[in-house]
Amino acid sequence: MEIGLLFSIFLVASNFIYGVHSTVFTIKNNCRYGIAPATLTGTGDLVSTGFELAPEASNTINMPVPWSGRVWARFGCSNDGGHFHCNSGDCGSGHVGCNGAGGAPPATLVEFTLGQKDFYDVSLVDGFNLPVSVVPQGGGAGCPTTDCPVDINARCPSELAVKDASGGTIGCKSACLQFNKPEYCCTADHSTPETCPPTNYSSFFKNLCPKAYSYAYDDKSSTFTCGNGADYLITFCP
């Protein structure tokens, strides 16, 4: 028997024994305008790094397991002279695919660690640009939804607001991003949960989106888990 065929049989058998599988991310655009979702891989095989979605459109990505990384969405995008650019969440690649680059904050992040147990959260630690929800599909009982369904841009304090050329608010910075002070970033002499409690600014985000990370030590009410085998529906502007 050829070595290649033996290796193929071994892979199939190993996958069956150890339960190797992929997780499907379905990313949907419920916004009234086009967006460009993107991913950034932390660990694991690379996946599609960006694509465009018209209103009400969706796309699926087969995610390798194990995998960790983030998903976010850009908007206010244009492709002038072959150079792709977005006013919010842009990754600076000049293309629809971000090709290993992260989004410029403020951007609402959906963070995943996929493995024997999945961990996921919505993070506003660097600020907000679009509402989002994460709904597990399958995986058994005890797989909660998490989200930030509110348009924080419409309520953003003026000192945190990011404006476009027409004066509209297209993002809301976190206090850490805006002021870069230890008490907001949980650094230096504020680098523990005891010395870095919530602030008025992080509480502003938390009150609007109770399930989302609002600052660095917001784990207890913001990180969710799901058993192996779930898929995920990620909806922007739910």
Secondary-structure topology with pairs:
Blueprint: H1 3-18, E1 22-29, E2 35-43, E3 58-64, E4 67-80, E5 83-88, E6 109-114, E7 117-123, E8 127-128, E9 132-137, E10 146-148, E11 161-163, E12 169-173, H2 175-179, H3 182-185, H4 200-208, E13 224-227, E14 231-236
Parallel strand pairs: 1-14
Antiparallel strand pairs: 1-3, 2-4, 4-5, 4-6, 6-7, 7-13, 8-12, 9-10, 9-14, 11-12
Describe the structure.
With about 240 residues, the protein is mainly beta. It has a domain at about 20-150 and about 200-235: Thaumatin (Sandwich). About 15% of the residues lie in helices and about 35% in strands. The protein contains 4 helices and 14 strands. The chain has helices at about 5-20, 175-180, 180-185, 200-210; strands spanning about 20-30, 35-45, 60-65, 65-80, 85-90, 110-115, 115-125, 125-130, 130-135, 145-150, 160-165, 170-175, 225, 230-235. The strands form 3 sheets. Strands 2, 4, 5, 6, 7 and 13 form a 6-stranded antiparallel sheet that branches. The radius of gyration is 19 Å and the shape is globular.
